[in-house]
Each structure stands twice: as C-alpha cells, then as structure tokens.
Amino acid sequence: MNQTNGWVFGKRNDLIVFCGPLLASIILLGMHKGNYLGFGEVTLHFAIIQTYINLAHLYSTFWYTYTSKKQWKRHGSWFIGIPLGLFFLNLICGHFFGGTLFIYFIFSHFSIWHFIKQQQAWFHIAASRGVARDKLTLFIDKYAIMACTMGFVLSSQSMEDSRGWFQPGDIVEFPDFLRWPLLGLSILFILAYFTRHLYLIIKKHPTNWAAHNVFICTLLLWGYTRLGERTVLTYYLNQLHHAIPYFLLGYRYMQSQRQAGEIYWLPQLPMWLLGIAIFAISGFQGNIEMNMRANLGLFSSFNDIFDNTSGLVLMSFFNAINITHYTFDMFFWNRKNNPEWTMALGER
Fold first, then answer.
1. If you ran DSSP here, which 8-state letter would residue 47 be given?
2. What is the distance of C-alpha 259 from the center of its chain?
3. For residue 251, how many other CB atoms are within 10 A of its CB?
4. What integer pLDDT is reported at residue 299 of this predicted model?
5. Are 58 and 285 in contact (CB under 8 A)?
C-alpha cells in the first residue's frame, strides 16, 4: 500500500530533501563567490560537504547492513568478500599500475555511475506512484531523466573541454564532434518531457507532481554542475543533492525494520546517537584526507599521495570503503535481495 499519495517520502519531506539541496547549492555558490564567512576557500566546502555529508551518508549504509542479523544471514559472505577484495585490488593496482592513475580512473567511473543511477531511481520511484502512464509517457520519462543525468555528463566530456567528475580527465572523454549531437538529443528529450506533461495537464489528465519535483531539481542542479559555469564546487553540490535524500531513506528504513521486529547489534542505541557516531567516523576519515591533500591542491592528481606505502594503504582502504558502498547499493535497495526495503517508502 502506498501511504505517501504518490510522493517518495511524502510531500513535505520530498520538498525538503530534493528542493532543499538545490536551495542550499544556490546559497553556497553565492557565499563562495562573495567569500562570505570563509566560504571562498575550497577546503571549507570539503570539510562540510565531503566529510560531514558525503562520507556520513556513505558510512550510514554500513549501520543497517553490518549491524543487522538478518542481513548477515542473507549476505554475510558479500559483507566480508567485497571490501576485502576491493582493498587488495586497490593495493595491487596502485603498486603495479603507477600509483592512482588506474585506481582513480576506475573509482571515478564507479562514483559517477552510482550518482546517475541513484538520481534516476528517485525519479522512477516517484513517477511510478500515484498516476498511471501510457507507453508514450513512459518512454519520454525514461529518456528525459537519462538526458538530465547521463546525457549532461557525456555532453561535458569532450576532449576539447573535459569537465571530468572529480577533476578534468578522470573519466572517459569523447571527440568534440560528439558533444553537440549528445547535448541536442538530451535537450530534445527534456523538451519532450515538458511538452508531454503540459499537454496532459491541459487535457485534464492527472499529473504526478512528485515526479516533476524530482525531475526539475535534477535538471537544474545537474544542468548547472555539468554544463554551466565551471567551479570547484560542482562535484560537492552534486554530493549534497545525492546524500540528503539517502539519509532520509536510511533513517526510514531502520525505523521501519525496528518496528517490524528487526534485531540490530546495539539494539537500544537511539538513532541520534548513531548519527553522532557516523559523523565522528566521517570526521576521522575526512581529517586524514585533508591532511594528505594539504600541499597538493584539492583537485590535483592523487598520484602524489601514493609515493609512499602508508599513503597507498590508506587510500586503498578509503577507496575500498567508497566502492563497497556503491556495490551494496546495487543489491541492497532491491526487492529480490531485500524485499522489506520499500517499507521505508511507506509501502507494506
């Protein structure tokens, strides 16, 4: 049963977790350009967004996987094998393939694919609830949200002007002549989306405002960060938009599972204390990363970090944690592997 009337988390919550990061991004950009309260310094954005938002959302995944007795029974071998395998793969690649050039390239592709798939998933969840769609609308919706995410990413990856993900050149680049056809096709699907849904509204058909909310927020933020003014904040603004809805999903999931009788390790630990613990762990990793990058420049190549063994081990460990999170998300938020997860969306 859908208890949110078509919205992903409910109307008020959707406006907060999808529109809120967009508003926060506008404010942060203004503060960065005006250098208000020290926000002209990139390291401050790194400390706040990367450490206490992005890393915190990453570590939150492990609280409702590794601390769940039920999930250990289902996926225990994956919980051990995936991070260990990724850690040693990072070590081997770092040692034999010239520092981080290879590792960083693979990591960037995992990261951007993860961001794209999650953003598309929010839209598809919203679009599939509350309002029935015909085949034409389904087709347009599918490719319009792809245009806002993957289409904008590919359009910004020409060899002449690669925007990259973390930094220019860290993901696949395309010949410049492909840029404009890709961008043109993306714009056509976006225009088709607005044209189709405006037509349906004029014809008095029910419309799905939850899906439109996610779509417009995605269009504005991804359009700016991928195609708009180049700024060191673009990746961090995507992190903000990526992590905030995920926090609510994880919170709702643990709440629903506890109510259903799920047993977690430390079962009496309140959610606010879990939050403090996650922020503390994130702060520890963020502090190490900032110290390691202090003399490199935030968007310089990570290759210099791997000049010593301790740096190789530390960054292999951090990369393994990140990619473990990406991998878990591919199978954990899936009805086949975890049928109860939709309870976090108000379904029974």
1. I
2. 27
3. 17
4. 39
5. no
> Which CA distances in Å does 5 have to 16, 127, 131, 218?
17, 12, 10, 21
Instruction: Give CA–CA dist 305/315, Å, rounded.
Output: 8
Query: Within 13 Å and on the Cβ side, how many CA atoms surround 113?
Result: 15
Domain segments of the chain: what residues? 11-345
Residues in a beta bridge with 264: 68
Q: CB count, 10 Å around CB of 257?
A: 20
**Separation CA 134–CA 91 (nearest Å):** 50
Token pair 């680049």 is found at 173
Tell me the per-residue pLDDT of 230-281, one tens digit each, with 9 for 90 and over: 766 676 788 888 989 998 998 888 888 888 888 777 655 566 666 666 666 6
Angle, CA of 197, 193 and 137, to the nearest 5°: 70
The two structure tokens encoding residue 88? 């040693």
In this predicted structure, the answer to whether residue 186 has a pLDDT above a threshold of 90 is yes
Dump the DSSP string for 121-147.
HHHHHHHTSSS---HHHHHHHHHHHHI
